[in-house]
Amino acid sequence: MDRAKTICVTGAGNGIGRAILMHFAGLGWRVIGLDIDSEALAQLRDALPREQALLLTCDTGREGEVSRAFERIAEWLGDDGLDCLVNNSGISDPYCGPLEDLDLADWQAWLDASLTAAFLVSRASLPHLRRAGQASIANISSTRAVMSEPETFAYAAAKGGLDALTHSMAVTLGPDIRVNAIRPGWIETGPWQKRGARSHPEHRDKDREQHPVGRIGRPEDIAGAVEYLHGAGFVTGQHLNIDGGMTVKMIYEH
Asked: CATH no. for residue 233?
């Protein structure tokens, strides 16, 4: 009998990470979720069979916390490997204000939450990914890695760094581990927040119309992309825009 596959998702408590975790749990995978939000993880824990899920409170941008989390993960995995890692953690709000007012500590917080976290978690995951054979890593980047709105310096830099880390890891870790990035565009995460923070916003016609597909993105779209990339054995080092076509449409102010 084939063993159940296992995925580890960072930033799993809310939004895109939560959708990815639940998507793969629905496919019968064992799931590992890391998040700084213990309340969100507690709600996920109630929704999943205990033997299927390991949910750990962890600030993935801090080396000591990642090390402690992976001690527990190693125990839980035993001799099994880790089939897929999704580096999704980050600060969701991209706006940091004027450049001249941006503190170094705030700049570093954006980088640590996304880029440093991806480095730390990928490094800790390597022995488990190699044990699985033909494993994959999906780094959740952003369309802001290649295009910007004003005053998003630190967020854009973190995501651009994540894109570069992706192709560097791909050429180094292959053929046993494939590494790709997903660049979400406008994804409405309101329905995928923890209880108490959940929302179901109504979007305007002009919000939908700026996307050639005619709608705003959903976290489920990103979960499907992770599943595709895990199965795409001839795809590595790539950066996949999941944005409804928004980045290829010219938009003029009228």
From this structure: 3.40.50.720
